[in-house]
Amino acid sequence: MKKGYIYIVLCAFIFSTMELAGKLVAGSMSPIQVTFSRFLIGALMLLPLAATDLKRKNIKLDRSDYLYFFALGSLCIPISMVLHQLSVVHTQASTAAIVFSINPLFTLPFAFFILGEKIEKNMVIALLVSLAGVVCIFNPLAVSYDLKGILLALASALTFALYTVLSKSRLSKYGGFIFNFFTFAAGEIVLFAVLAAKGTPVFSSITAANLPVVIYMGIVITGLGYIFFLEAIKLTSPVTASSVFFIKPALAPLLSMAFLGERISLNVALGMLLIVAGSVMSYRSRNR
């Protein structure tokens, strides 16, 4: 159990650097190129683990499995993750991180309508508190220069929440390593097709200056981050491991301030506190 909490801390720190790293390469690479590069590396890291699980569990994939992976992979990588990288381009890394971190709460309405799961009163309150935090960040009393970035981050959080809910139907069948590898691989194939259709060379924008960041995003954030998260789930529980997502909105802004020199306005700080509060309420409700 103690080892599981170490994985949670490591995962929370790694995921909190995602927007920071994305901001560093935003000016030299397109969002599609960034997303393709990091998930390619992540998929290659998961390949041997997935292959081992396929052999150990004696799982044979059929046509319906591959169609499922392509559907989920398309929702996660070409849509949600590209939207997320786009949000980093159009707003502060800290703001994108905070807004994206409420994605676990958006699973509530999706789980109700798609899976028929019961909605508890405490979960609804937690969702409303977090949405109040998003409203504070939007700052409706003033026109924000980064409104587009906030909307993109919100769209990314919504689509990732939908991806999370849809993954529940077969995740237990495959296991985390198999599911993530094939989802990543399928999403990469779709994203490659998009790049090819646009006539964009896949790695044309990678330079000596941004290569270390791309490698970090692939190996550490996408590869090790997901591996640590899956190990945390295995050694603790899905609910306990999800605490990563209420540590991130508190930690990511601090990292952005330290490394990017970003300033947190009063309305964003208040929104961050409300989102953390809503996430904690959600965590306690699910834990009960």
Automatic annotation (TrEMBL):
Subcellular location: Membrane
This protein's UniProt keywords: Membrane, Transmembrane, Transmembrane helix
InterPro entries, alphabetized: AA-Vitamin_Transporters (IPR050638), EamA_dom (IPR000620), EmrE-like (IPR037185)
EamA domain sequence ranges: 3-138, 148-283
GO cellular component, one term: membrane
Keyword Isomerase part of the UniProt annotation: no
Principal location listed in the UniProt entry: membrane
Bilayer-crossing regions: 36-54, 66-84, 96-116, 123-143, 149-166, 178-197, 209-229, 241-260, 266-283
Membrane topology designation: Multi-pass membrane protein
One protein family per Pfam: EamA
Family note: Belongs to the EamA transporter family.
Protein name per the record: Putative transporter
Provenance organism: Peptoclostridium acidaminophilum DSM 3953
Lineage of the species this protein comes from: Bacteria, Bacillati, Bacillota, Clostridia, Peptostreptococcales
